[in-house]
Write a structure and sequence with these properties.
The complex is a heterodimer. Chain A is an all-alpha fold. Chain A has 5 helices and no strands. The chains are: A mainly alpha, B mainly alpha.
Chain lengths: 106, 226
């Protein structure tokens, strides 16, 4: 097994622990924090608030959006026969994973 | 970047509120994850936060050009107070009273006007924030800050010449200007020096009279050489 395949297998095992809805809910909470930071810098434009919003605030927003994109990816690879809030294997991933991974996911 | 207007802040706040409403609705009501919900989440997690980030960045950058922003650190209290003092005759105060400088007099005079001036000015400002919060300036008394806080590099005459062109008749009619034209262009002599137009912030140069001495007319700018 190549290093890439091993990394891919690990990533899939980790992804299986997350549900699409759970990940979106996490993205929502993170985005709310980022929005609050950015809005605060408008309401109260103190030096630290402005700099924090323009740096950390935007990173928080990007992380939230990446979580959303990851959930979209998970939703796509799962197919239509899985409930979005069900933690479980991604079908397209499962075809190429080892028997041990498949066994763990069921 | 400056003069973008307060509407950017309103746009940032409005888009942040719309995004927050969408996200809170999803978190509280837990709707089915159908196409409509996914599109709403795209708006709430992607489109509106992007608008908020872009507009709040521009509004934030504009906020950093305001005089109140510069004066919000206590080490700048004296500079802020002198610049806004209607009775002061310092260069900073007289320029601050000029409507062209408006609420951004610190930025207009201290900005770097080179090709990458805006970015370089902001990077310099970041250094000031670092010095204030992590470099010990925050704990300084006013006396210490008057003694230890200085301009980072000699003031560039180019900044004065953004407005005071050295080719106009009025400027060239002053003999001292013509005599020192090369030195002024090479920054070997500062426009804002005691022998010329006086320091911009004379109170910061100690109580020993190093600030600009007013001429008989009461205007330091009338004197050029001693």
């Amino acid at each position: 097994m190549s290093v890439l395949e091993r990394l891919r297998g690990r990533a899939i095992v980790r992804l299986r622990k997350w549900s699409v809805v759970g990940l979106i809910r996490l993205a929502c909470w993170i985005a709310l924090v980022g929005l609050a930071v950015m809005a605060l810098s408008i309401i109260y434009p103190a030096p630290l608030a402005v700099i924090f919003a323009m740096s950390v605030g935007q990173v928080i927003g990007i992380i939230a959006f990446l979580c959303y994109l990851l959930s979209v990816l998970m939703d796509v690879v799962r197919g239509t026969n899985h409930a979005p809030d069900a933690p479980g294997p991604a079908q397209n991933f499962r075809e190429r994973t080892s028997a041990r991974d498949v066994g763990n996911s069921t | 970047m400056p003069h973008a207007g307060p509407w950017l802040g309103y746009v940032a706040l409005a888009s942040a509120v719309i995004a927050a409403v969408i996200l809170v609705h999803f978190l509280v009501r837990r709707p089915a994850l159908d196409l409509r919900t996914k599109l709403m989440l795209l708006l709430g997690l992607g489109v509106f936060p992007t608008i908020t980030a872009a507009t709040s960045t521009v509004a934030g950058m504009e906020a950093t050009t305001h005089r109140e922003f510069c004066g919000s650190c206590h080490t700048m209290d004296d500079h802020f107070g002198n610049a806004t003092d209607p009775d002061s005759q310092s260069l900073a105060a007289r320029h601050t009273r000029n409507p062209f400088f408006g609420e951004e007099s610190c930025y207009v005079c201290h900005a770097d006007y080179g090709m990458f001036g805006y970015a370089l000015t902001k990077m310099g400002g970041m250094k000031h924030v670092y010095y204030y919060y992590l470099g010990g300036y925050r704990g300084m008394s006013k006396e210490e800050s008057r003694r230890d806080v200085h301009i980072a590099k000699p003031y560039d005459n180019t900044n004065c010449r953004q407005c005071h062109t050295t080719t106009a008749h009025v400027w060239r009619s002053v003999p001292d200007h013509l005599a020192m034209q090369e030195q002024l262009a090479a920054n070997r002599v500062s426009c804002a020096s005691p022998g010329c137009h006086g320091y911009a912030h004379p109170f910061s140069k100690g109580p020993d009279g190093l600030g600009a001495a007013p001429s008989a007319s009461g205007h330091p700018a009338a004197e050029h050489a001693r």
